[in-house]
Design brief:
Strands 7-2-8-4-9 form a five-stranded mixed sheet. It has helices spanning 2-8, 35-47, 78-84, 99-102, 105-109, 121-124, 131-138, 146-149, 225-234, 253-264, and strands spanning 14-18, 58-63, 74-77, 90-98, 167-168, 185-186, 195-200, 215-221, 245-252. It is an alpha/beta fold. Helix content is 28%, strand content 18%. The chain starts with a helix and ends in a 5-residue tail after the last helix. The radius of gyration is 23 Å and the shape is globular.
Length: 269
C-alpha cells in the first residue's frame, strides 16, 4: 500500500543528483558542507528574482527553520524535496528600503542585540529562541546519579579496541556516558543562526568589488513577515502590512529548491 501511494504521488521522480552531503547541523555555518551556505551562495541568488525588478539590488532573508533535514549525496527526488523543506511559504518584499536599515535586520533577527527583550509579549512568545537560551534550556543537572544508584557502570557489549567506531547516537547525560549497548563515535552538532541573508544584484566597482546600494528591495519568506516589520519599526522605519507586496507570486522556497537542483545537478547518480 505504501509503495502504491508513493508511485501515485511520484515521490521517486528525480530532479537531479546531489554531488555531496549537505548538513543542517552537522556542519558549521558558513561552510562548504552546510545546507545553509548552499542556499545562501547558490540557490537564493539564482532563484529569487522578480522579473520586473531583477536588476534592482535585493537583500533576501530566509529563516533556517524552514529547512528540516539534510541532503545526502545521490538522487534528489520529490520525496527529498519535501523531506528537506515541507512548507509552502512564499516570498514578500518591501521596495526601496534604505540599505543602511535593511542590512541590520539579520543581526537583530539572530538575536545578537539585547533590545529584543522589549518585543511585545504576543510576538515575543513566538520569537525563535537564541542558541544560548536553547543550550541553557536543555542543559541537564551536572551532578552524577552515582549518589542514588552507586558507582557501578554498565559494561558495553563491545570493546573500543575491536574496530573503528562509526558516527551515531551516543548517550551523554547526568547518568553518565557509558550506557549504550551499541557504541558509536559522537556526531558533532553545530548551532545555526535564525536567518540567513543573500545579497543579490548589488553594484560593483570598476575593480569588481561589491558596493553598497542606496536602497534595496527587502525580500523575505512570508513566515517571518511580522518579525521583519517589528524590527524595521524598532529601527525607526514605520512600515505596515500594506507596504508589503508578493514577490514572485505563486513561487515558494520548496519549489525553488527543486527547480535549482533540476537545472544544476544533472547527470546520473
Amino acid at each position: 500500500m505504501i509503495a502504491s501511494a508513493r508511485k501515485d504521488l511520484k515521490l521517486d521522480h528525480r530532479f537531479g543528483c546531489a554531488p555531496q552531503d549537505l548538513w543542517t547541523n552537522r556542519a558549521p555555518f558558513p561552510h562548504q558542507n552546510s545546507i545553509f551556505s548552499w542556499l545562501q551562495v547558490l540557490v537564493l541568488p539564482d532563484m529569487v528574482s522578480e522579473p520586473t525588478r531583477k536588476d534592482i539590488p535585493r537583500l533576501v532573508i530566509v529563516n533556517t527553520g524552514g529547512i528540516r533535514f539534510d541532503i545526502f549525496k545521490g538522487p534528489f527526488t520529490i520525496d527529498t524535496t519535501y523531506t528537506v523543506s515541507p512548507f509552502t511559504s512564499g516570498f514578500r518584499y518591501i521596495r526601496d528600503v534604505p540599505f543602511q536599515t535593511a542590512k541590520r535586520l539579520k543581526r537583530i533577527l539572530n538575536q545578537e542585540v539585547p533590545q529584543l527583550v522589549e518585543l511585545p509579549h504576543d510576538l515575543a512568545a513566538h520569537l525563535p529562541v537564541s542558541s544560548k537560551t536553547q543550550a541553557a534550556a536543555f542543559e541537564g543537572p551536572k551532578e552524577s546519579f552515582d549518589h542514588y544508584y552507586g558507582s557501578a557502570n554498565q559494561i558495553p557489549l563491545s570493546s573500543e579496541n575491536d574496530m573503528p567506531l562509526i558516527p551515531g547516537y551516543t548517550t551523554h547525560d547526568a547518568a553518565g556516558s557509558d550506557g549504550d549497548d551499541t557504541i558509536h563515535s559522537p556526531i558533532k552538532f553545530y548551532t545555526v543562526p535564525n536567518v540567513i541573508e543573500s545579497r543579490v544584484a548589488f553594484p560593483t566597482s570598476e575593480a569588481g568589488n561589491a558596493e553598497d546600494p542606496e536602497k534595496v528591495d527587502l525580500v523575505y519568506i512570508d513566515f517571518i513577515e511580522r518579525y521583519v516589520l517589528w524590527v524595521l519599526k524598532f529601527l525607526g522605519r514605520e512600515y505596515e502590512i500594506g507596504d508589503t507586496e508578493a514577490y514572485m507570486e505563486g513561487k515558494e522556497l520548496t519549489g525553488l529548491i527543486s527547480e535549482w537542483v533540476e537545472g544544476n545537478w544533472k547527470g546520473d547518480c
